[in-house]
Design goal:
By secondary structure, this protein is α/β, with parallel strands linked by helices. It contains 13 helices and six strands.
């Protein structure tokens, strides 16, 4: 297990010192140069690109162009909970540590199918190198049933640095869905993980959404996603809202179905659909990583 707990105070201080020196030198270098039309054109072009990006709503390239009403493809980290993970990845990318970062993805049948989590894991390893990635999903699993499964002991034994938690579809499919009960079940699993893996970071994902039998709209999709967000906010954890990024309560299911990436059962997705979800999660993760580096 990668030792991600020390915040590397000396390392960060050195970076701040270098940044300060660089900022001090920039005005000196700028003063020694004669402004020309090329520099002005470059600045104008950059401003035009930024303006165009803003007008486009910062739509993620990982989201299919056919999707309508999509939300921001971002990770919400309510207390910089993932900061140790991002710093570990930075160290690994710079060759400062030879150890690998361990990432475990747990969840229901969407994870048991492997394509969604492994798409993310392969891209993460491809970018940073020293990343070990595993997924342990169970068909039909909920937060509560996973607590009672033998998979949890396997999670503990592997000692991951980051656990990605993807449940909610089966909770939302329950016609007697209760946000309060769901919240308690989330807490039971999180408490168990934190007691057995005290130095492990947690990242939730919301389900992409599902239809009820007969193709009826499932009103619990939004309630389930919001319960997960509320829990992450209340406990200072991180969450990726796949449901909102896919179009939220008005468009998410329609987008997946219309694109041909949802299976006829209205619950599961095609291989292409799961690859798209893995790409979307990776895109949001890298955005959060880059934002963390910008704050150094």
């Amino acid at each position: 297990m990668y030792d991600i707990q020390p915040m590397k105070t000396v390392f960060r201080s050195f970076r701040y010192l270098c940044l300060g020196l660089l900022l001090a030198l920039v005005p000196m270098c700028t003063a020694a140069q004669t402004p020309d039309s090329t520099a002005t054109h470059t600045t104008d072009s950059l401003e035009a690109q930024l303006q165009a990006s803003a007008e486009d709503g910062h739509r993620s390239a990982a989201i299919p162009a056919s999707f309508r009403g999509v939300g921001d493809n971002v990770i919400q980290d309510f207390s910089e909970h993932l900061y140790p993970i991002f710093m570990a990845l930075l160290d690994i990318s710079e060759g400062e540590y030879l150890d690998s970062l361990r990432v475990m993805h747990i969840g229901d049948s969407h994870i048991r199918g492997h394509i969604y989590p492994q798409t993310f894991g392969q891209k993460l390893a491809g970018k940073f190198g020293a990343v070990r990635y595993r997924d342990l999903g169970i068909n039909g699993a909920t937060f509560s049933s996973y607590m009672r499964s033998d998979k949890l002991n396997s999670v503990y034994a592997w000692q991951p640095d980051l656990v990605i938690i993807s449940f909610g579809t089966n909770e939302a499919y329950d016609t007697n869905y209760s946000p309060e009960r769901h919240y308690r079940q989330i807490d039971e699993l999180v408490v168990a993980l934190q007691e057995n893996l005290p130095y492990t970071c947690l990242l939730f994902t919301t389900p992409a959404g599902c239809y009820l039998r007969g193709g009826r709209h499932n009103p619990n999709n939004e309630r389930c996603a919001q319960t997960l967000i509320n829990y992450a906010r209340d406990h200072g954890l991180a969450i990726y809202d796949l449901f909102a990024a896919s179009g939220g309560p008005t468009q998410a299911c329609s987008n997946w179905k219309r694109s041909g990436m949802m299976r006829p059962d209205g619950v599961h997705f095609t291989a292409e659909g799961y690859r798209t979800q893995g790409n979307m999660l990776f895109d949001a993760f890298i955005k959060a990583y880059e934002e963390a580096l910008n704050d150094l």
